[in-house]
Amino acid sequence: MKNRATPLQIFKFLDKTNCKLCGKESCLEFATDVLERNIALKKCEHLQFPEQQMNYHQIRKLLLPPQKEVIFGTGTRKCKIGGEEVLYRHQRTFYNPTAIAVEISDNISDWKEFEKKIQYLTDLSIIRIGEKLTLDALAIRYTSQIPENYIKVVELVFKISNLPVILCCLDPSIVEGILEHFHAHRPLIYAANSQNADTFAKISRKYDVPLACFAPDLSSLVNLISSLEKFGVTDIVIDPGTFFTSGGKFFTLNRIQEIRYNIFENHHSLMGYPLMGVPAVLWSQNQTNISSVEELSAGFNLTPEIQKIFEDQSQASTSLWKKQYEEVLMGILLQTIDSNLIISHVGQNAEEIWGLMALMTYRQNIFTDPRVYPRVDPGLTIINSPSEWSPVYVTSNYRMTKIPVEQDLIDANLDGYLVVVDTEGIGIESATAGGQFNEEQIKKTLDKHNIFNKIRHRIIIIPGMAARLKAPLEDLAKCEVWVGPRDSSSIPSFIQEKWKIDEIKAKYSQT
């Protein structure tokens, strides 16, 4: 792995005035945050001075990752791919999650329905664990073989959608005709090959847009990249091929891993670009059968219900859902090995939302920073419309705990107060064992938000995994502590059984 720059190496090229114009307290703090990509280098105003240009370029050189970051699209939804520093996430972290694009064809029979489809894909969002999951790009395929059709579709997409676009067309003249009018949208050209590389390289340079390239074998790919670089193309995306033929799946994954190993371990600068996979090619290769699905499913625990579907299905090779499943599973595997961009066929309409949900939620799970506990801000969360007789729940600020608890309460239409204790982003069980979730912290949070001034009872519900805090919390906070269920999905039934409002009113109205 390439030796990473240190904050002191960057600090050496700063003017060390600690001017704070960047928002940081010192130049050393700025150097540290620049290295961790928490602040842009251009935020240092002093580096913009003419006499500081040499230092600016020296720092940029130090910050260059082994894999170049490529950006296509513009505005708030511009798509960043690549730019990684390590082969495996646990070595440091991955910075840019796999971008997910959905392909659309220019074979349009109903233009109104097509507009609805584009709007649907543009607006598509799923809220999961407090994070908004969206699509990253649209890949427009030239399948009609009618240039006017393709140009009209691209023009319509740019008019309706702010999603970045991938122009999937091997005809340079058509692509250049589009870029003459729409190069400001900075689409990604797909793809240069041995026949059109020179022409596409000139177009990429002329309009300053990124260019993907494809070759059937590794040596041809290296030669193709070398040729593009000689033409001055700097933003390149590599497609090593995605294959579903017999043995092709593992060949695909192994080749991508081989290239990534050359980038991050062998420092092969010629290969140092983002990598893409195209699970959507399954539909053109038309290679699918039940054995291939089982081959891809190796290592995954299929439920008995899914296994039964495999066994019961006849005509497996022509089964629509099986092809969709195979494509989505390939997309998941490509994300697992940190492919930087994937293009999916499944997901074009609302009926296929399950495919995009699988891809986006898996991506969310994979691309988290292993150095940082996923946390939310501690504090008080109001659930629905609580009254002075509503329950008070206590949880940690571990993101995967707080958000599901909140969502389960909202979905069950329960009113209440959710007290979120600062456990340094650690879950209930571990934080209870480690001491971050304790009676002192809970009481401190209760007092900070004056919870007992908001309610007329003194009942606090703690998670089942923190049951041992019941007695000490009751002594310290002078309240009644109920031990709730271990899983937040059981809270609704717990409240229905335990929260007898008339009894609680009778008990606490007298005190």
UniProtKB/TrEMBL annotation:
<dbReference type="InterPro" id="IPR051069">
    <property type="entry name" value="ACDS_complex_subunit"/>
</dbReference>
<keyword id="KW-0411">Iron-sulfur</keyword>
<dbReference type="GO" id="GO:0008168">
    <property type="term" value="F:methyltransferase activity"/>
</dbReference>
<keyword id="KW-0479">Metal-binding</keyword>
<keyword id="KW-0004">4Fe-4S</keyword>
<dbReference type="InterPro" id="IPR011005">
    <property type="entry name" value="Dihydropteroate_synth-like_sf"/>
</dbReference>
<dbReference type="InterPro" id="IPR016041">
    <property type="entry name" value="Ac-CoA_synth_d_su_TIM-brl"/>
</dbReference>
<keyword id="KW-0808">Transferase</keyword>
<keyword id="KW-0489">Methyltransferase</keyword>
<dbReference type="Pfam" id="PF03599">
    <property type="entry name" value="CdhD"/>
</dbReference>
<dbReference type="InterPro" id="IPR007202">
    <property type="entry name" value="4Fe-4S_dom"/>
</dbReference>
<dbReference type="GO" id="GO:0032259">
    <property type="term" value="P:methylation"/>
</dbReference>
<protein>
    <submittedName>
        <fullName>Acetyl-CoA decarbonylase/synthase complex subunit gamma</fullName>
        <ecNumber>2.1.1.245</ecNumber>
    </submittedName>
</protein>
<dbReference type="Pfam" id="PF04060">
    <property type="entry name" value="FeS"/>
</dbReference>
<keyword id="KW-0408">Iron</keyword>
<feature type="domain" description="4Fe-4S">
    <location>
        <begin position="2"/>
        <end position="65"/>
    </location>
</feature>
